[in-house]
Amino acid sequence: MLSSGVVEWPMTRKIIIDTDPGIDDAMAIFFALASPEIEVVGVTTIFGNAHTDVTTRNALSLLEIAERSDIPVAAGASKPISSEFRGPAASVHGEDGQGNVGLPAPKTQPIEKRACDFIVETVMDDPGAITLVPIGPLTNIATALEMEPRLGEALGGIVLMGGNAFVPGNATPVAEANIVNDPEAADIVFGAACPVSMCGLDVTEKHFMDGETLDRIASYSNRRARHLSAILSWYRDFYREWMNIDGIYVHDSTAIAYVLDPTLFETVKHPVRVDTTAGISRGKTWPAVRRSADERPWEGRPDVTICTGIDSAAATELELSALSR
Ligand code: BDR
Ligand code: CA
User: Fold this and answer.
1) 98-107, 246-255, 268-277, 295-304: least confidently modelled range
2) Whether residue 251 lies in the annotated active site
3) How far apart are CA 108 and CA 172, in angstroms?
4) What's the CATH number of domain 13-323, 2.60.40.10, 3.40.1350.10, 3.90.245.10, 3.10.180.10?
5) Is there an atom of ligand 1 within 6 Å of 92 CB?
């Protein structure tokens, strides 16, 4: 499958992963770390699947498991820009965000910089080179964009997991979890002055790993896969109990697969606004599908590349081949 409008894709991409680990976040982080085409230059943390102190500890532990504690971790915001945190997703990811496996405390500490400062400094020091890969609520990214008006133009791009353009929500009937956790932030990010690619539920719910595939991950003998095997058992139970399926939707890793090979995806381009009102569709991502050039509130907003389809088998092989290393 071919995505529209992607012209050049550098051989190696420097990325910052902004994350709320999270079981599928752990998969995505390990997938990126084991992919030679990607250089992870930093991990920034955010509330979402758990509170930020928990997700920060998890990020440090995950890097320890991957023997990549050389990568800086910067702790991010503990609440949305202008609302209160809706609360952790303990039924999906466990009280500890990692399937209640009881990870020992990490030996390392986050750096003494806030996530938004780390993002601004790292990107402005290496203009054009860095892609942000947010796989949690977008508070840190929006704060960084607001702090440094030149940041958008200095970014190589943003490839995010979040939103639902043409399908229902998962956190509410109409909104996806990462976006509804900070709709004001998401609306800022979808207006950023760089290429923004959205891997939302439109594509992540078409990227399914069945029970057999999860068993394959569990059979790998490296430390990352052993941790994934433990936490995926919790995640798999959640899907069994709540959705009556044996297997998982591959949410966060889909953004990594897009960074690695956008030709696996089908896409459309539209400007996207986020509902930031207090009504029932708060957090819904709205693409302007049929629009005239001056239609408000999409007027002047850039096109977002919205992923709508994926070669799921090929993306799974890409991920499994990385996780097996
Ligand atoms: C998103 O919400 C979180 O629970 C997952 O980690 C993923 O980032 C899916 O809607
Ligand atoms: Ca996540």
Assistant:
1) 295-304
2) yes
3) 36
4) 3.90.245.10
5) yes
